[in-house]
Specification:
The chain has twelve helices and eleven strands. It is α/β, with parallel strands linked by helices and 288 residues long. The chain is globular, with a radius of gyration of 19 Å.
């Protein structure tokens, strides 16, 4: 069966696009009719894991790779918002295909706060109708670091969704817990929340499903997920709030992410809902 596909997590650039491939051709080859499009932090993507021995050496001691990675990450945290001209240029080539999201860093010096929110407002006026935050690269604590962002979005247009790049807590990284998202959803019942990478691990998917089942304003995106985790979400919350995303071409080829849905032991109608229908209904509500 050839499924219609709405990719709710697409970037303008990435490793799996290939050196001689343009993004629109890539989407055509994989039957992607529509997509939520945002930019990519190219500096962080290429340099976080630079493990040059000369750069790791300090006081005669070689740092571990993980320590070097986090030091690189701190150095690469932008003091400004990422340039989204690539999103605008690509969207102009096929305006009906793309939903533009702004990748926003809510952590900046207080004296730059007004400027950064003015940049976000300018992009809303240019047709961007959602915001993505990255809990990993920008080291964001939820909900503490995004209270002003949520208020700003709700004041501008209550329909605009917030996409959270979620990362489970680890021994090295604080990440985002299910409790964090529960607090955000319960305190902001009118805010539409999209949890990215919702089935990144089986236990994470089960935890999210059980903790967030009752929150109708929360949707679950499938990129970088394991198939059994996606199946767990279907069984826990039902398929209606699960939306397909690839995180392509950054972390995976599109074809691999598509296979994760097509292999599921569920009906083709449910697969079509996850691939396209759920996202179409969601974004039609926002006139995106």
């Amino acid at each position: 069966m050839n499924f219609r596909i709405f990719d709710c997590h697409l970037h303008t650039y990435g490793t799996f696009l290939g050196p001689n491939k343009d993004l629109i051709t890539y989407l055509d080859e994989n039957n992607i009719e529509k997509a939520v499009l945002t930019t990519i932090n190219r500096a962080a993507k290429s340099k976080i894991f630079n493990t040059n021995p000369e750069e790791r050496e300090k006081d005669g001691q070689e740092k571990t790779n993980i320590n070097q990675a986090f030091e690189n990450l701190r150095k690469l945290l932008p003091k400004y918002q990422l340039d989204h001209q690539d999103v605008i240029s690509l969207s102009n080539l096929d305006p009906k295909r793309f939903v533009k999201f702004f990748w926003f860093n809510p952590k900046f010096d207080m004296d730059k706060e007004e400027k950064n929110y003015r940049i976000l407002e300018d992009h809303f006026k240019k047709g961007f109708c959602g915001v993505k935050i990255h809990s990993g690269i920008n080291l964001i604590k939820i909900p503490r670091d995004i209270n002003k962002l949520v208020s700003f979005m709700q004041d501008f247009d209550k329909r605009f969704p917030l996409f959270i790049h979620s990362t489970p807590k680890t021994s090295y990284f604080g990440g985002v817990s299910c409790k964090d998202i529960v607090n955000l959803a319960s305190n902001n019942p009118e805010l539409t929340i999209i949890v990215g990478h919702a089935a990144l691990a089986m236990e994470y998917a089960i935890d999210l499903g059980l903790a967030l089942k009752k929150f109708k304003n929360v949707f679950f995106e499938t990129s970088c997920s394991i198939p059994y985790g996606i199946l767990s979400l279907i069984k826990t919350i039902g398929p209606e709030r699960i939306i397909f995303g690839s995180d392509a071409p950054v972390t995976n080829p599109l074809s691999l992410e598509i296979d994760k849905i097509t292999c599921l032991p569920v009906s083709n109608d449910i697969k079509q809902d996850i691939f396209y229908n759920n996202a179409e209904k969601l974004f039609n509500r926002f006139n995106c």
